[in-house]
Amino acid sequence: MVKIAICLFGNLCQKTRGSTRSSSILNKGVSQEILMNEENNWQNPIHGYKHLFNNFIKDYDTDVFMHCWNENKDIQNNLLNLYKPKKYIFEKQKTFDFDLKNYNISSEEKDILKWNISDIAKKGYNVVFSNRGNWDRTIDEFKIEAFRTSSRWYSTKKSIELKNKYEQENNIKYDWILICRFDSHATLKYKFNLNALPNDYIYLQKRNSQDKNYSFGDLWILSNSYNSNYFGNMFDERFKYCIRCPISIFEMINKNKLNYKLL
């Protein structure tokens, strides 16, 4: 039977959209840490679990690994009882650096073409600036994005590290790795036949946005175990890429000449 690992990352996924949370931070002075730890804004984890159970866990030999930004013992116990992960980490939300200079983003130089970044990243930033029309506000949004991007890739890294450690301890190699958030019911709409699907490709969701030609969906990733480690390295390498996750994934995959398919 096909053996898969589900690597869950992040918090319990919030009911409010990222753009709404950004507005709260910019307009009301609410801190990112407070927003990410509002218990009444978390989604019920049962929905994500039922989706993963019906689409993966019941059909395949499945192990679960998770890193979650959560200190609530009741929620932790709920997640452990649902998923029964082989390895897991719960921890308080870390504070990550907001300094845009790490990404070679200049708040003073308004000609993006002069920034020391890739051509793809320039396109990705230009889309945002052209849509917002306000330089200072967009720079502030990028600072928030720096926090969210770092938080996301750190959590992904930890979840994949748990998978790697378990593989080493048990001398196994998973056929498939699904990297996803706790709200997979809302973000992963495909029913895969992992017994027939070639696992030498990375599978991602295509985007229908203005930057669809140089970005990939970032809410879930399906790959073999070896390729999953490229995503586990994204936290340590994040300053090499665009601050926007969909763009950075596109950059990383093309830089490493990885085979992929969009769904």
For the structure shown, list the relevant keywords.
263 residues; alpha/beta; Spore Coat Polysaccharide Biosynthesis Protein SpsA, Chain A; 5-stranded mixed β-sheet; two-stranded parallel sheet; 10 helices; globular
List low-pLDDT spans. none
The total tally of domains equals 1
What share of the residues lie within helices? Answer: 40-55%
Mean model confidence by pLDDT: 91
Instruction: Write down how many β-strands occur, each being a DSSP E stretch of 2 or more residues.
Output: 7
Please give the alpha-carbon distance between the first and last residues: 24 Å
Overall outline? globular
Biggest sheet: strand arrangement: 3-2-1-4-6
CATH architecture: Alpha-Beta Complex
Q: What oligomeric state best describes the polypeptide chains here? A: single chain
- The value of Rg in angstroms is 18 Å
Describe the largest sheet. 5 strands, mixed
- Percentage of residues in DSSP E strands: 5-15%
SSE string, helices as H and strands as E: EHHHEHEHHEHEEHHHE
Q: Helix/strand-derived class? A: alpha/beta
Q: If you consult CATH, what is the topology?
A: Spore Coat Polysaccharide Biosynthesis Protein SpsA, Chain A
Tell me the number of helical segments per DSSP (H or I, 4 or more residues long).
Answer: 10
CATH class term: Alpha Beta
Protein name: Glycosyltransferase
